[in-house]
Write a structure and sequence with these properties.
disordered C terminus, 6-stranded parallel beta sheet, Rossmann fold
Length: 392
């Protein structure tokens, strides 16, 4: 196969970049020719003679809105000139004005805007007006990108539902969950002392960007008030200028909440706790939740967190609403009441995670490529329109 992958970055340090990285690695390992059209790539991949990197340098013009549109125009022009060189073109959401065979969807701006937790209002000033314009423009562009693809690949059931809400036929969807490194994230010896954590309590872990309220740490703190005193919470995330230490103090649980800021060695931290809690108000696909499963942690989450559909009663608890504070407290208390049960659920979580490894995810993409290339009518390659009409 000759595959073109269009993405801003192929990297190991963010979710979408890691998905692209694992797909490229699997393609190269299988002996396929890969061209990456993007801005950044892991240098080690460039050593493979089967890989070609065509760089579109990031524009120096201000704002992501302008930068992304310039990338979309430049990549679309390049694809128009080179389309016939490839068996299949794979893009990520709205990234180019060119048509594609596969569009992997990691986030749906339409879903985020309509989810009920979208925080931006026009009356909040110039910055809010820009953020609102950015969201609305991406809603418009994404819909056209989805319609222009032969197959749309949502990364979770939540994302699939949001894609269908934009008018895409369910028959054109092929869901593939993101993966997780089951070697890096795995059960093992605890490191509580290293992280300055107490040795005795039942430790819950919350990890996420504390600058965004949608991660819903406030609900976890309020729920902790109604749990037994031996249940403590570890919060991994930057605490600068965030309101949560003050909220924990106001709620009278400051002694049970351990803010440890950013953590470089998340696998070691996950091996040091007893369960993972993640009631995010909105999430397309939670990689940190998959990492917790791989680390043999039972998970307490909510249906609004993308990827929650993989969790069953054997390995966790999925609540209907992120605002169900009483339900969250009850689930946490139930887990903490029986540590042996929590460990058993953790082992079930680990077994589940092994079916969601990066390797298995990549093989699902390669199988989809094979199916699409085989299904294409003889002589049809390169005959589709090269760009999506802005007026369509």
């Amino acid at each position: 196969m000759k595959i073109l992958l269009v993405t801003h970055r192929v990297s190991t340090n963010d979710g979408q970049g890691r998905v692209n990285y694992e797909i490229v690695r699997a393609l190269l390992a299988a002996g396929h020719s890969v061209t990456v059209l993007g801005s950044r790539i892991e240098p080690a991949l460039l050593e493979n003679p089967l890989l070609r990197f065509v760089q579109i340098r990031e524009s120096y013009l201000p704002t992501r809105l302008v930068k992304y549109q310039i990338f979309a125009l430049r990549s679309g022009a390049w694809i128009a000139a080179h389309r016939r060189e490839f068996d299949l073109i794979h893009v990520n959401g709205f990234i180019t004005w060119a048509r594609a065979d596969v569009n992997s969807v990691h986030f749906v701006h339409d879903g985020w805007y309509r989810c009920g937790f979208y925080p931006i209002r026009l009356r909040q000033g110039a910055s809010a007006a820009y953020q609102l314009a950015f969201t609305r423009l991406n809603m418009w562009c994404e819909k056209r990108a989805f319609r222009a693809a032969r197959t749309v690949v949502p990364v979770s059931q939540k994302v699939a539902t949001e894609v269908r809400a934009t008018g895409i036929d369910a028959r054109n969807l092929h869901m593939i969950h993101n993966g997780v490194d089951v070697e890096e994230f795995a059960p093992g010896p605890t490191h509580r002392e290293r992280f300055g954590l107490p040795s005795a309590p039942f430790l819950l872990l919350f990890a996420g960007d504390l600058r965004v309220a949608r991660k819903n740490l406030d609900a976890v703190l309020r729920a902790l008030v109604s749990t037994p005193a031996h249940v403590h919470l570890v919060v991994a995330g930057g605490v600068g200028n965030c309101p949560y230490p003050a909220l924990a103090s106001t709620l009278g649980i400051a002694g049970r909440v351990h803010f440890i800021d950013f953590v470089q060695d998340m696998p070691a931290l996950m091996r040091s706790v007893d369960a993972f809690v993640f009631p995010s108000r909105y999430e397309a696909m939670s990689l940190v939740m998959l990492e917790a499963l791989a680390s043999a942690l039972p998970v307490v989450t909510v249906a609004t967190a993308g990827g929650a559909e993989v969790i069953d009663s054997a390995c966790g608890v999925v609540l209907d609403s992120p605002e169900d504070i009483a339900g969250l407290a009850a689930a946490i208390s139930w887990l903490a009441a029986d540590p042996e049960r929590a460990r058993t659920m953790g082992m079930a979580a680990r077994r589940l995670a092994t079916s969601l490894s990066w390797e298995q995810m990549a093989m699902r993409y390669l199988s989809l490529y094979d199916d699409l290339i085989e299904a294409r009518a003889p002589g049809a390659s390169g005959t589709t329109r090269d760009t999506v009409s802005a007026a369509s």
